[in-house]
């Protein structure tokens, strides 16, 4: 059991534009990243017949217990990864799935718990496991060789000083294992210029990269998008909120490919044959927060919403390389 997170209202990012673009909200929905339940409650209150919430974090399910009962059998919560949402749908949605919402990345309740190890601003064990199982961030930081560690920082966090940071980590862990968030943050800060007012903390990109690697977030995203395609009825809606450029690029590329786009995300990927589109889109541009949302929730500043509408074309798999997932061969732009 962990201590209670900082008590503050949970504000689901871009919920208003989701509800506006999918109105009227009806039928059965899957909230594939349940978290604090903001999207689930928004969908149920807007008219969804039923919502199945999925989260791999047992804390999310525990925290929902005080309020979930008010929705009766309209709400089902399942502990799983959204990469498996088509399996969850098959077991829990005999009536089919009319809509799916995915909110990618770490939730505010996880960031606010020092014990979870996501935050470079609060001291805690260097953990970052959303499922609270498997290898932790401390395991990666203390056991990976310097080269693979630098690859993670660069490819998943777009940290251009990845080699310099990996060298510093290797040097420091030789003295004593790195087991806390603030110690790692201090090591990273020592490798980079001091942040100017308004700039992000120097450890932001590295912590993001480690979190993504620990939880295989890009792999789960690729699998989850394809699982959503398999699960949705014709006419069903897929709404995805992403928070940084690599995630948004993968989601954008998925919709491009599955909405009848041609070509490849990179020149090394196999050429894809044109198929009947599995999705349509009202707009190919991502939807960002408006001024009102930015005022209420500053964490929404980097968020982008993309929405696709399922056709009756057969579902198909997509090579991960075609989605533009970071690859170990892409090292251009990295510094010392």
UniProtKB/TrEMBL annotation:
Subcellular location: Cytoplasm
Protein's recorded name: Ribosomal RNA small subunit methyltransferase H
GO cellular component: cytoplasm
MF term (GO), any: rRNA (cytosine-N4-)-methyltransferase activity
Gene giving rise to this polypeptide: rsmH
An example Gene Ontology biological process: rRNA base methylation
Entry-linked NCBIfam families: 16S rRNA (cytosine(1402)-N(4))-methyltransferase RsmH
Keywords: Cytoplasm, Methyltransferase, rRNA processing, S-adenosyl-L-methionine, Transferase
Region named Disordered: 316-336
Similarity remark: Belongs to the methyltransferase superfamily. RsmH family.
KW rRNA processing (keyword) present: yes
Enzyme class: transferase
Binding positions (S-adenosyl-L-methionine): 37-39, 55, 82, 103, 110
Ranges annotated as spanning the membrane: none
Entry annotated with the keyword Cytoplasm: yes
Taxonomy, superkingdom: Bacteria
Record Pfam families: Methyltransf_5 (PF01795)
Its job: Specifically methylates the N4 position of cytidine in position 1402 (C1402) of 16S rRNA.
EC number, as in UniProt: 2.1.1.199
Principal localisation: cytoplasm
CDD domains: AdoMet_MTases
Organism: Pseudooceanicola albus
Reactions catalysed: cytidine(1402) in 16S rRNA + S-adenosyl-L-methionine = N(4)-methylcytidine(1402) in 16S rRNA + S-adenosyl-L-homocysteine + H(+)
């Amino acid at each position: 059991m962990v201590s209670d997170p900082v008590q503050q209202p949970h504000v689901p990012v871009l919920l208003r534009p989701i509800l506006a673009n999918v109105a009227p909200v009806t039928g059965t929905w899957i909230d594939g990243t349940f978290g604090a339940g903001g999207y689930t409650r928004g969908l149920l209150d807007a008219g969804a017949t039923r919502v199945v919430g999925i989260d791999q974090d047992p804390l999310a399910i525990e925290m929902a217990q005080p309020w979930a009962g008010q929705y009766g059998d309209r709400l089902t919560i399942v502990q799983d990864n959204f990469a498996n949402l088509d399996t969850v749908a098959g077991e829990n949605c005999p009536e089919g799935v009319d809509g799916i919402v995915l909110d990618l990345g770490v939730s505010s309740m996880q960031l606010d718990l020092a014990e979870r190890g996501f935050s470079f601003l609060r001291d805690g064990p260097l953990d970052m496991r959303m499922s609270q199982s498997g290898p932790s961030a401390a395991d990666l930081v203390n056991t990976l060789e310097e080269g693979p560690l630098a690859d993670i920082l660069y490819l998943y966090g777009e940290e251009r000083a990845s080699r310099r940071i990996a060298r510093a980590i290797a040097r420091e862990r030789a003295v004593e294992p790195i087991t806390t968030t603030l110690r790692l943050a201090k090591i990273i800060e020592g490798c980079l210029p001091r942040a100017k007012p308004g700039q992000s903390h120097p450890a932001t990109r590295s912590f993001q990269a480690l979190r993504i690697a620990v939880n295989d977030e890009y792999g789960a995203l690729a699998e989850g998008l394809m699982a959503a395609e398999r699960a949705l009825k014709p006419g069903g809606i897929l709404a995805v909120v992403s928070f940084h450029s690599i995630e948004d690029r993968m989601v954008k590329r998925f919709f491009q490919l599955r909405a009848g786009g041609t070509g490849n995300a990179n020149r090394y990927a196999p050429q894809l044959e044109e198929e009947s589109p599995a999705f349509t889109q009202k707009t190919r541009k991502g939807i960002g927060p408006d001024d009102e949302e930015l005022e209420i929730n500053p964490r929404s500043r980097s968020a982008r919403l993309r929405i696709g509408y399922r056709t009756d074309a057969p579902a198909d798999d997509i090579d991960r390389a075609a989605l533009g997932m970071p690859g170990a061969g892409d090292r251009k732009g990295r510094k010392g």
